[in-house]
Write a structure and sequence with these properties.
Helix content is 46%, strand content 17%. It is α/β, with parallel strands linked by helices. It has two domains: 4-174, Rossmann fold, CATH 3.40.50.1970; 181-365, Up-down Bundle (Dehydroquinate synthase-like, alpha domain). Helix 4 (107-119) links the parallel strand 4 (100-105) and strand 5 (125-130). The longest helix is centred in the middle third of the chain and has 21 residues, at 211-231. The chain is globular.
Length: 367
């Protein structure tokens, strides 16, 4: 007789968030001293020169031995080759199961190192220090880690929470204007899908010098994302699909242009197309659609569509993780701050129409 029984598994993933810390403080030093094992600090070459080497030197002066691992910056380097190179360096230098990996940088670094931490020796302690506004409101929260493949973006990865996240808002003072614009795309996503109050705040503009307001918005975005992630961590019931708004279209745009479009710019275009589809399919009022369009336009994203073959684009979008039975599924908008209760299967002709609208509205450029 066939015998069946269930094995109960308890997950106790908890991330401690330090919202306004100073990386060069005694608090950080004491915190790291509580962690046993070998420290590995990861950052791209730009962040290493900006803060990585100086922070390593500071910790060494305080008696904390830490090895630094550098890789080339950019989304196109978030791949298997970079992952394998870093892993081989770790093996060569004798890092074991008791290691602590520290991801210092933007979304690419946090995605990449999170995936390495999840798989190295079947999982090691992970600390994240986001240095861009985009990473602060998105990549550092939620436990998603991944690399890109030749077939698409973020197709290989793991769900793995960092043990702690340290937010040092002084890092934002080094951000170029383009990175600020990039970050607002994810903040606008939270506003459009989850919070009309955040929408109103963003309508009033975002002053790069007003760190106090930035901190408040970052904290709000953290809590909004956590509310979604905490009830659907592994994307099993569909709630977490809300966070994909703008990303299905956006990720395909990034991939088809070999990541010449920045993530925030691609998501801004994706949100426009998916808002357009929400209106065309009768879910969203035209008034709300135009308000969303005006908000995205006000943040000066470069919205001209790159001149690519739509047939190739459609092949990329068909490989998206959210495809079910060969059909792309999207969360659509019912109102600003309100989404459809579940994902909606979207016929390809609506996607093509949305892309054509974007091209007519904002023009086309070569790459």
């Amino acid at each position: 007789m066939l015998e069946t029984f269930a094995l109960s598994l308890q997950r106790q993933d908890t991330t401690v968030v330090f919202l306004d810390c100073d990386l060069f403080s005694s608090q950080i030093v004491e915190d790291l001293r509580q962690i046993k094992g070998k420290f590995a600090l990861f950052c791209d070459r730009n962040v290493a020169n900006l803060i990585g080497y100086s922070w390593q030197f500071f910790l060494l002066q305080k008696g904390i031995a830490i090895e630094i691992f550098i890789f080339e910056a950019g989304e196109k380097n978030k791949n298997h080759k970079t992952k394998e190179q870093l892993e081989n360096q770790l093996f060569t230098q004798g890092f074991g199961r008791d290691s602590c990996f520290i991801a210092l940088g933007g979304g690419v670094t946090i995605d990449l190192i999170g995936f390495i931490a999840a798989t190295y020796m079947r999982g090691v302690t992970l600390l994240c220090i986001p240095t861009t506004l985009l990473a602060m409101v998105d990549a550092a929260i939620g436990g998603k880690n991944a690399i890109n493949t030749s077939y698409g973006k973020n197709l290989l990865g793991a769900l793995y929470f960092p043990h702690k996240i340290y937010y040092d808002f002084q890092c934002l003072r080094h951000l170029p204007k383009k990175e600020w614009v990039n970050a607002t795309a994810e903040m606008i996503k939270y506003a459009i899908t989850l919070s009309y109050d955040v929408f109103l705040q963003l309508e009033n503009g975002l002053d790069q010098e007003n760190i106090s307001k930035i901190m408040g918005l970052v904290k709000t975005c953290i809590h909004l994302k956590h509310q979604i992630v905490s009830c659907d961590f592994a994307e099993q019931i569909g709630t977490r699909s809300i966070l994909n708004f703008g990303h299905t279209i956006g990720h395909a745009l990034e991939k088809i242009t070999d990541f010449q479009i920045a993530h925030g710019e691609a998501v801004a275009m994706g949100m426009l197309v998916e808002s357009y589809m929400s209106w065309r399919m009768g879910f969203l009022s035209f008034t709300s659609f135009t308000k969303i369009q005006a908000l995205i336009h006000s943040y000066a994203f470069p919205l001209a569509v790159y001149d690519f073959q739509k047939e190739l684009y459609l092949e990329v979008i068909k490989k998206d993780k959210k495809v079910k039975n060969g059909v792309n599924h999207f969360v659509l908008l019912q109102e600003i701050g309100v989404v459809t209760p579940s994902t909606i299967p979207i016929p390809m002709e609506y996607i093509i129409e949305g892309l054509n609208w974007l091209e007519l509205e904002y023009g086309k450029i070569s790459y």
